[in-house]
Amino acid sequence: MVVVDFEFKKKIMDVHIKDTLKYCYQCNRCTDVCPVNDVTGSRYSPRPLILNSFLGLHDAIFGLESSFNIWGCTACDTCDEVCPQKIELTEVFYILKNMSLAKGEGPDYFIGQASAIFDYGKAIPSQPAIERRRQQFGLPPVQSPSTDDVQKLLKLTKLNKLIKKE
Questions:
Q1: Do 96 and 129 lie in a common domain?
Q2: Rounded distance, CA 89 to CA 155, Å?
Q3: pLDDT at 149
Q4: Helical (H) or strand (E) element with 164
Q5: Could you tell me the residue range of the domain that residue 52 belongs to?
Q6: 138, 129, 64, 62: which is closest to 95 by C-alpha?
Q7: Quick one: 146 and 120 in the same domain?
Q8: Residue 65 pLDDT > 80, yes or no?
Q9: Is pLDDT larger for residue 63 or for residue 166?
Q10: Neighbouring residues of 75: CB distance < 8 A, sequence distance ≥ 6
Q11: CATH number of the structural domain spanning residue 17
Q12: How is 108-121 classified by DSSP, letter by letter?
């Protein structure tokens, strides 16, 4: 039995820029140009995400077994550029990813990367081997970011709560 989650549908429709999502007529251009769709053999497809979001089919989108359906998007914005209705699809995908994180369904790689940014101020912490190579090539040392500033920003956006960092 299909259950429509009207609260979920309202959240998606309310936050979508200019409320254009309701004008999606499922032309499939987003999927046609999606590079992730190409390399995954259609395992990831933006079109069903948009349709299920628009219809309020929460259970068709979320769940650990469905996480690739949400997290497959690399936010390349190609779908946004070709949409004949000018729908900003990646905005919907950001919302779905945030909802996934709030449910504790974010992929381990995302949590790990976000934790590294919180702890070190950047995704890949400095390593002696990298610094040696930079020195060999005559490059200046990489300046370390202010972790206090990064943590302050992440706390303001509440990302720290989603990745369980205080």
A1: no
A2: 26
A3: 94
A4: none
A5: 6-102
A6: 62
A7: yes
A8: no
A9: 63
A10: 90, 93, 94
A11: 1.10.1060.10
A12: HHHHHHHHHHHHHS
